[in-house]
Amino acid sequence: MSGEASVDRERGRTEPAGRQVRPRKPPPQPFTILGLAGLVAFTLVTAWDWALGIGFDPLALPGELADSNPAMVEGLFNVTDADWRAQYVELLRTHFTDPDSPWPLSLDSRIGGGLVETVQIAVLATIVGAALSLPLAVLNARLGAPDRVTHAVVKALNNVNRAIPDVIWAALFVVLVGVGALPGILALTMFTIGVVVKLTSDVVDGIDRGPIEAARAAGASHAAAMRTALVPQILPAYASFSLYAFELNLRGAAVLGFVGAGGIGQAMSYYWSQLDFEAVSVIVFVYLVLVVVVEQVSISIRRRLG
Amino acid sequence: MTRASVRGSGARAAAQVRPERPFARFRWTVTVVLLALLAWSTWSVDATWGRLLQAPGRAVGFVGTLVETASLEPLGVALEAMWESIAIAWIATLLGAALSFPLVFLAAANLTRSRVRQPVRQVLNVFRAIPEIVLAIALIPFLGLGPVTGAVAMGISSIGTLGKLSAEIVESIDDGPLQAVEASGGGRLERLRWAVLPQAMPEIAAFWLYRFEINIRVSAVLGVIGIGGIGGFIAQAVERNVFERIGLGLLVVILATMLVDAISSRLRRRLIEGPSPAAQARRERASTGGGPTGDDAA
User: What sign for the dihedral angle of Cα B134, B139, B144, B145?
Assistant: First the structure.
């Protein structure tokens, strides 16, 4: 970039007239200077290998990537080895087939069951969370709240909710309702509410106020005005955000098992603790396929909602 | 519709004036599928719904214990863990920004032919599809289990979203400056420097900051598999029932996340909207001949 800049400056010098016509470049804003200095300082502090940094050295990274743990690499992705591939296929088969079941693909096996549970958690959390989100999204917007106090309370609560990551919710719900799928569902419900309420209420702020004024002029109560004049306007965006939350939930559901909240993560952390990296690799592979398929379906529906 | 309007013109009952509501097949399909999914999940999931009833009682007890055991003693450790999460998120954001930046222009329809653009878009989609935890697990054999692993995993998985949305920003720029640079003989790089970056850069930088806010949450999530930071801190405290750490950890993560969000959203607004009119006026009074500039983010 600086190359072009200097060429341009040279051109300016050979044509003194052009130089005069051009207005003087204003000095950089204080925001630019302070911002850039802050960015550089923050980056150095966080990247340096000391008490306040994580020791991130981009130059050493290729070397570290080349210097790997051979046992784990072999277990996780040794696709070039024929024996490994055979074993991998065998694992896929055994983990999905129950000897007592007549079906070729059993969903009662550890991985199959975990996958199904992951989908169930994501489905329930998305539907329940999205259903709760619509009224909350209306209240979370200044236009939709009946009074300032409600608006402030809902907004503050949702900000707190959004600040708690989904696994932390999951860990807390494990304490409250015990291990299993239930804490996972509850945790992702909270997460769904956080995402959908935030995104939808941003849409509420930008809608056409005409219909609401019309409803009010026709004597509608606040709730009726919202239902008839506001909600229909935000419905397509809301539906689209709910589907987006479903994609996020499906990804989020994988990690819940690590804190005991059910789903495929439970199988993942089990085999991980057994140092059975091939099984981990099988799970990751199957899960990835699931995520990609669901995302494609969701994207095509969202396009239809447009 | 036609039937209703024909009848409506015949000044019959008022109800007839309103056009018939068309049969919304799409809406019905969606509703039925959703209800079926809901029913299937509720019945088949191994959730022991009865335990939901105990939850409120237990929550009261839990909060009570948190209040009773409240102590500022682990504050230092909690703040350290939170800072580590923020550091991981920041490095991940920079990494994602640096890796996605060159791809942005190759994925933008107004800059790149579709023969090049389509494959680049597909690459971005692949990165978007892979969940962070999968990348983190795949990286552990190479980088071990630590903050750097988390930062690299999150950085790589940020490429997809950052690249796609930044490309959309680039596609939405005004075509005029592009044509002007082209007309005055500017090449590919000159077009980027003088027509694309000045228009798109503030919004792209704002989007990087937004990704930083998201990455703070993701780094807390990855904490539970052991990359460090506040997520692992709280998850371990819950596992071992160290109540003073749970309470303080929650407080720290909530306050720190909200603080970072607030700072970041102010910075984003400043990047996109430029200086406030008051600050602008003050500057213009101070300097002799300064016009508005668009290169705050460069």
Answer: negative
